[in-house]
Amino acid sequence: MFKQLVFIATVFFAMPAVAETVRVKDLVEFDGVRGNELVGYGLVVGLHGTGDGFRNAPYTEEMLTTMLERLGVNVTGEQLRPQNVAGVFVTATLPPFARSGAQIDVTVSAIGDAESLLGGTLIMTPLNAADGDIYAVAQGTVIAAGASVEGTAASVTEGVPTSGTIPAGARVEREVDFEFSSLERLRMALRNPDFTTAMRLEKAVNQFFGRRVALMHDGGTIELDIAATGAVSPAHAIGLLENILVEPEQKARVVVDQRSGTIVMGDAVRISNVAVAQGGLTLRVQEAPQVSQPNPFSPGDTVAVPRTTVGLEQQEGSLAELHSGTTLTEVVEGLNALGVSPRDMIDILKSIKAAGALHAEMIVR
């Protein structure tokens, strides 16, 4: 038996410098300009024997029975056992300002033991919002996202065949009651709240209009005076300001994914002078048992005699000094100078953070 303790090498990523300007529309969310989540429960029919087993999914049988009775088919007392029907959840997002008659995409996901939704058709399914009202109705052919093949002794599944989409599969039947044109003040919420970014955005908007029309309330909210902009409506005001360019600011962050060994560092990451020592340790245990048995016709038992060889190898450790990095490139070059794998680099970064030399927010996932 042979055992070996080794380190696993993975990939190291460094995020490029971010010093470019970004449009306002890519930085903020406008008050009232948002979507609404919709959900419904329906049936997918026309499957090729890959639907729900009614014994494990009785709700599918109940809904199929109810639907058939509504269509005038009496199935009371009958035991339905079709294999081409599946119960599904249907989800969608109602876009802002969606009007009656507009079509939206929907996602269909099996909730029972159906094996695949490939080739199925979603039957008319009402979609409800959080308030319980129906805002859209979905129906159409499901485009499954995968495939599954099964034999007597083996099976192969690619993708997720129990989930699919229907492009433009739902029609809006009810509009969200919101008078956007009556707003006198409009709030802009930063997707990544930051006081510096909010201040720059306020300054850029006021300079664009030539007067004070925007006021920063906190690091994530800027209020816009619609009347002061001179626009005839809030929609016109947004159309004017959403393409204004602003240079966003970001916090120094190091994001570590321990499962894959991925490291992502922001451009603002800085490291103070620190010395780091790193060495590798390899442990080998090899089992080679031998069989000992007595001579023919002599007393004794045959036994297995263990033979174990143990080896311990330690690589020469390295001590390197990481100087104060003024750029991300210098930080990366300093870490790479140690000649360690990204998996070991995660531990080094944690230790540097604990020593107080890593000036960045460290996020470990």
Describe the structure.
The protein has 365 residues and is α+β, with helices and mostly antiparallel strands. It contains six helices and 27 strands. It has helices spanning 58-70, 195-209, 226-229, 234-241, 328-336, 342-354; strands at residues 2-4, 22-23, 28-30, 36-45, 85-94, 103-110, 121-128, 134-141, 143-144, 147-150, 155-158, 163-172, 185-190, 214-218, 221-225, 245-246, 253-257, 262-265, 270-271, 274-278, 281-287, 290-292, 303-305, 308-314, 318-322, 358-359, 361-364. Strand 5 (85-94) and strand 6 (103-110) form a beta hairpin. The chain is flat and about 110 Å long. The two termini are 35 Å apart.
Distance linking N and C termini: 35 Å
Count up the domains.
Answer: 3
Radius of gyration: 32 Å
H/I helix tally:
6
What sort of overall outline do the alpha carbons produce when their principal axes are compared? Answer: flat
Uncertain parts: 1-18
- The strand line-up of the biggest sheet is 4-5-6-12-8-7
Structural class: alpha+beta
Compute the number of strand runs: 27
Q: What is the helical fraction, as a range of percent?
A: 10-25%
Q: pLDDT average, as an integer?
A: 78
Oligomer category: single chain
For the biggest sheet, the summary is: 6 strands, antiparallel, barrel
Strand content: 35-45%
